[in-house]
Every structure is written in C-alpha cells, then in structure tokens.
Amino acid sequence: xxxxxxxxxxxxxxxxxxxxxxxxxxxxxxxxxxxxxxxxxxxxxxxxxxxxxxxxxxxxxxxxxxxxxxxxxxxxxxxxxxxxxxxxxxxxxxxxxxxxxxxxxxxxxxxxxxxxxxxxxxxxxxxxxxxxxxxxxxxxxxxxxxxxxxxxxxxxxxxxxxxxxxxxxxxxxxxxxxxxxxxxxxxxxxxxxxxxxxxxxxxxxxxxxxxxxxxxxxxxxxxxxxxxxxxxxxxxxxxxxxxxxxxxxxxxxxxxxxxxxxxxxxxxxxxxxxxxxxxxxxxxxxxxxxxxxxxxxxxxxxxxxxxxxxxxxxxxxxxxxxx
Length: 323
Ligand code: PBG
Description:
Elements: H1 16-21, E1 32-39, E2 45-47, E3 55-58, H2 62-71, E4 76-82, H3 99-110, E5 115-120, E6 134-135, E7 138-139, H4 141-158, E8 162-165, H5 172-182, E9 191-196, H6 203-209, H7 229-241, E10 245-249, H8 255-264, E11 269-273, H9 275-286, H10 292-305, E12 310-313, H11 316-322
Parallel strand pairs: 1-3, 1-4, 1-12, 4-5, 5-8, 9-10, 10-11, 11-12
Antiparallel strand pairs: 2-3, 6-7
C-alpha cells in the first residue's frame, strides 16, 4: 500500500551529504587484500597478457612493490608463487628456499607491518597442474593433506602472517591447523577458501600462475556452481576444522552465496574477486566501453553489501586511489 505523498523516498537523496548520511555500505581500503604473483629469478617484471596492469615479479623487485602497496594503505597481500621446477610431488611448494619462502622473507624485511598471507595449494608446483597428488589419474585427497600441511608450515616458518588453503581437499584445514599447532604456530590464523567453485572465471589466473591442469579439470574437488546449500556445508566443515576466516570465490557471480554464508555464520567472511572479474572490466575499460572507476567501486560495494568483510581484488591499488 502506498503512503505517497507522506512517504517520499527521494527526500533523502537530494544531496550528496544526505546520501552519505544514510549510506548503508562502505568500502574502505582497509577491507582489501592485493594478490601478488612471484617468480623465481632476478629482475623479472613480466606483464600478464590477460590481466593488463599486473605483473609477475621476481623476489628482488618485491621490496619496491610492497612499499608502494603499504603506502596505499592496503593492509594485506596474498602471495602466489611460480617455481622454476615442477614435479609430481610439488617439491618446490614446501622447499625452505622455495619462491614463496624467499618472497616472504624479502617482504617482511621491507614492510614488517604489511600482512603477508600465502595461498596454500599445489597446482602451481605440480607438473600435471592439479591441486593435489595424482594417483591413478585421480587427485588423492588424504595423501595430499600431508603435503599441504608441510607447505603451510614452511610458509609460517618463513614468516607468513596467515595461510590460505585453496586446494579444496577435505580435511585440509584440520591437517594444517594440527601441523601449525605442533610447531608452535598456534597463533597463525587460517583463511580457508571454503566455498571455492570450479569456475571459468579463473582462466587469466591460470595463465598468470602457469597452473592450468594438464589433463581433465578441477571438478572432482572444486564446487559445482549451481549449488549453494553445499557451500554452507563446506563452510561448516572448515569452521569445525579450525578456519578463522572463511571465503567465497569467485565473488561477483556468487553474491547470493556470500549472503547465505553471512546470514548463517559469524566468522569473518572474505570474498575473492577473481582474475576473470578483473579481466572483463579491464578489457572493456581499455576499449572505452565503460567507466572503470564507477564499475569497480560498484562491484566492490556489491560484494560488501552481500555480506563480505574482506575483499581480495586485483583492483586494490586503483581502488585505494579512488576511495
Ligand atoms: C590455486 C588458486 C586458483 C586461484 C586462486 N588460487 C586457481 C585455480 O583454482 O584454478 C584463482 C584466482 C583467480 O582466478 O584470480 N588453486
């Protein structure tokens, strides 16, 4: 039933000051995490062709990069490593002088207050590109857990502030929590990629990280996109296993899932606005087809409005300038 003319919703939209006063959702730089791709070697700054404006950097170039990120007021980065050597058992993922372990040390020396989160997964380190150990053509869950725990532990030993398993094996949060606790890292939090969907939106990332599976796909471990109830079960499991922060990924095509998780659990909730989301906007912006700033701020606001507290985004630096 209409209350017009008593009710006029336009009254509170008349000026920017009024709109700001009643604004329900705000995005702040402090909500953002910036992903960084690190390669082994020296003086390497390789632009990622499907993600213009983003680079794979060698560890020697990290100090300058992280100083800039910190200056923007971005509180945290998440690291992805591209090793020189890949093998069946992902040895470089947990090598004490692996690419990520070196990167963490370099960053902590330069910007000790910048939070360093590490992506814990094997796909960048295995010759077959799957996120776990392959036995008879199938990714073996339980055998993978040990390697994930070893990887997370080596990140903590190198000085990581937080670890973020993205592999989607069952029981990985528990295995990692146990390994950390047994090695005096009980204070290192776990941000679990809890509801991570098998998504075509990861395409550009796989180019960036050289992590495309060499056979098959990831559908036997990542989630099927039509399911939301299953996402709640994934989150429930990860929380039960000790996750401190849970994540939904991708973000924009899964805003309903973000909302469901927010309404069901009280844990801090992160959303990952993935490579495909970045690439779509960047490509259209480069064509002059849309207003990049407007689109990005609207996307970030939508992700927060859906219920996310934290947003992982390749647009973090630009957003920091725009906010
Ligand atoms: C590693 C991992 C992936 C992403 C984050 N961690 C790729 C994948 O699962 O294939 C995707 C991030 C993005 O697309 O931005 N497992």
